[in-house]
Amino acid sequence: xxxxxxxxxxxxxxxxxxxxxxxxxxxxxxxxxxxxxxxxxxxxxxxxxxxxxxxxxxxxxxxxxxxxxxxxxxxxxxxxxxxxxxxxxxxxxxxxxxxxxxxxxxxxxxxxxxxxxxxxxxxxxxxxxxxxxxxxxxxxxxxxxxxxxxxxxxxx
Length: 156
Description:
This protein is an all-alpha fold. The protein folds into 2 domains: 2-67, no CATH class; 80-151. The protein has 7 helices and no strands. It has helices at 2-11, 33-42, 54-67, 80-85, 89-101, 108-121, 130-151. It is flat.
């Protein structure tokens, strides 16, 4: 969805795109720099970037991510759930890491579904302001903890 937003944005006058090299792109991250550059060129624009070493940078960051046990960026299919929950990419990654820390990574789908219910209860307000996202994040965290405790009392 981010890639399409880039294209539409540029057609409407946007001049700066936020991207990530391909090994770190997509999923909860930004669209890939390589694809964005290709798309802009196909639309008749000449991006002001030297892309001659992007592959080298991407390979280097991929090696560091693998060495550190982190996920590599990977494209994901468009999902209506992503629009309904509206978690920013960084927040999704942080939430996933927090759940892993507590041995609750299997709860991520339930937490994301809870976010959809909370947004509906709040009238589908925009999550652009920190106070809104943090209040929903706290509720999801509480819900996740309560659910995990009630279903599996041996977890700490």
